[in-house]
Design a protein that fits this description.
Helices cover 52% and strands 14% of the residues. The termini are close together. The chain binds shikimate-3-phosphate (S3P).
Length: 168
């Protein structure tokens, strides 16, 4: 089974993905990390040098071209489901789990790491919630195509596992 975790930056995809993979005995594939392996640098640097359009193409190619093991958890990037036909591809190739969170909750989790995130680096802490609110509105249509949607507040790997089991 391939389990794709999707959701906005800061919702916990990588951390929950690691815990879920450990519990299930599956491999964890972190898409941003795979991109960093390919480019030999950070996503932030790649974004800064090449721009978003080039990054989105590489992200899509990496998502679709990776040689996934049969059973794995994939932590996607926050924008991954929202470009090209990536969300359709995800749903054709696995089970998707949307980790949903409000703009305020996301802003609280993201405020300390603004500088490291290319889409946030030019924002002030005050404009962060507003930016997230707008971006989330743009992206929700994609995120809500997920097989399973779970509230990210107090979400644990056990809860995700139970939901996956309940759905067979
Ligand atoms: C992005 C999210 C990031 C990374 C890139 C773009 C986005 O991943 O892929 O900076 O567009 O939301 P995380 O969601 O893992 O931070």
């Amino acid at each position: 089974m391939k389990i794709f975790l999707i959701g906005f930056m800061g919702c916990g995809k990588s951390t929950l993905g690691r815990k879920l993979a450990t519990k299930l005995g599956y491999d964890l594939i972190d898409l941003d990390h795979q991109i960093e392996v390919i480019t030999g640098g950070s996503v932030a640097d790649y974004f800064a040098v090449n721009g978003e359009e080039v990054f989105r193409k590489l992200e899509s190619d990496t998502l679709k071209g990776f040689d996934y093991p049969k059973n794995c958890v994939i932590a996607t990037g926050g924008g991954t489901p929202c470009y090209f036909d990536n969300m359709d591809w995800i749903n054709k190739n696995g089970t998707s789990v949307y980790i949903e969170m409000s703009p305020l909750a996301l802003a609280k989790r993201l405020e300390k790491g603004i500088a490291k995130r290319p889409l946030l680096s030019s924002l002030s802490e005050e404009s962060l919630v507003h930016f997230i609110h707008n971006k989330l509105e743009e992206r929700e249509g994609f995120y809500h195509q997920a097989t399973i949607t779970l509230n990210g507040v107090n979400l644990t790997a056990d809860i995700i596992r139970a939901e996956l089991l309940a759905r067979g």
